[in-house]
C-alpha cells in the first residue's frame, strides 16, 4: 500500500514538473513571469515603435521568407536579401517531405506577406538563430500581426526558444483557441 502511495506521489510530481517545463517557467523571460492572455479573442499587438520596414522578396514556407530593408539598421545591417524566420511559431514543412498543412501554411503567409509587399518587423532578444536567419515578429502594412494570425487560424503552432518570449503568452492563448475550435491544421491533421 505504501508503495502505491509513493508511486502516485512520484507521478504527480513528474506531471507537475512537466507542466512547469512545457508551459513556462518564471525567470525564463529575463526576470519576467509570462502570463497567458485569456480567451480566444486576445488582442493582437500593433506595430511597435521600434519596428522597421522591409519589402518581401519571396516566401519560402509558412514561417520563413526573404525580405530586404531600404535603410540599414542595427538588426539588418546591409541592403542584401535577408532570410527572415518568424519568431514564436513553427509551420509544417514543404520540403524535403511535404507535411500535412505545409502548402496551406505557405499559402497563408504568401497571402499575408506577398512578394513586393511592405511589412513591418521587430526583433525580440536574440536577432539570429543558429542557421543565420534573422528572427523577427512581422506585421502587415495595415498593422495585422502576422505571427499571431498564423497561429490563430491554425496554420502554425507555437514554438518558443528562450530568450525570445515577448509574445509567448498571446501566441499560446491563440494556439489553445485554434486547437479547441479546431482550426486549420488542428482540424485537418489531427
Q: Brief overview, please?
A:
The protein is of the alpha+beta class.
Describe this structure in words.
Mean pLDDT is 83; it is low at 8-41. The chain has a 5-stranded mixed β-barrel. The protein has a two-stranded antiparallel ribbon with strand order 4-7. It is globular and about 45 Å long. The chain is of the alpha+beta class. The protein has one domain (51-188): Beta Barrel (OB fold (Dihydrolipoamide Acetyltransferase, E2P)), CATH 2.40.50.90. The protein has helices at residues 2-23, 102-112, 146-152, 168-180, 185-188; strands spanning 52-61, 64-68, 82-86, 89-90, 118-122, 134-140, 157-158. β1 (52-61) and β2 (64-68) form a beta hairpin.
Summarize this structure as a short list of keywords or feature phrases.
single chain, 190 residues, alpha+beta, OB fold (Dihydrolipoamide Acetyltransferase, E2P), two-stranded antiparallel sheet, 5 helices, 7 strands, 30% helix, 19% strand, globular
Tell me what the CATH architecture is: Beta Barrel
Instruction: Specify the CATH class.
Output: Mainly Beta
Order of strands across the main sheet:
1-2-3-6-5
Q: Estimate the global geometry from the Cα principal axes.
A: globular
The major β-sheet equals:
5 strands, mixed, barrel
Amino acid at each position: 500500500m505504501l508503495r502505491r502511495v509513493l508511486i502516485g506521489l512520484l507521478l504527480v510530481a513528474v506531471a507537475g514538473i512537466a507542466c512547469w517545463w512545457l508551459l513556462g517557467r518564471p525567470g525564463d523571460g529575463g526576470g519576467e513571469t509570462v502570463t497567458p492572455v485569456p480567451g480566444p479573442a486576445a488582442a493582437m499587438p500593433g506595430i511597435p515603435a521600434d519596428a522597421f520596414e522591409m519589402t518581401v522578396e519571396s516566401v519560402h514556407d509558412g514561417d520563413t521568407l526573404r525580405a530586404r530593408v531600404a535603410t540599414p539598421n542595427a538588426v539588418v545591417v546591409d541592403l542584401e536579401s535577408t532570410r527572415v524566420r518568424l519568431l514564436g511559431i513553427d509551420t509544417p514543412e514543404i520540403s524535403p517531405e511535404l507535411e500535412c498543412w505545409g502548402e496551406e501554411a505557405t499559402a497563408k503567409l504568401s497571402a499575408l506577406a506577398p512578394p513586393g509587399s511592405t511589412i513591418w518587423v521587430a526583433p525580440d532578444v536574440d536577432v539570429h538563430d543558429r542557421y543565420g536567419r534573422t528572427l523577427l515578429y512581422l506585421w502587415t502594412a495595415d498593422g495585422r500581426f502576422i505571427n499571431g494570425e498564423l497561429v490563430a487560424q491554425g496554420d502554425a503552432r507555437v514554438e518558443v526558444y528562450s530568450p525570445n518570449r515577448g509574445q509567448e503568452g498571446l501566441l499560446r492563448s491563440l494556439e489553445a483557441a485554434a486547437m479547441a475550435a479546431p482550426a486549420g491544421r488542428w482540424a485537418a491533421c489531427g
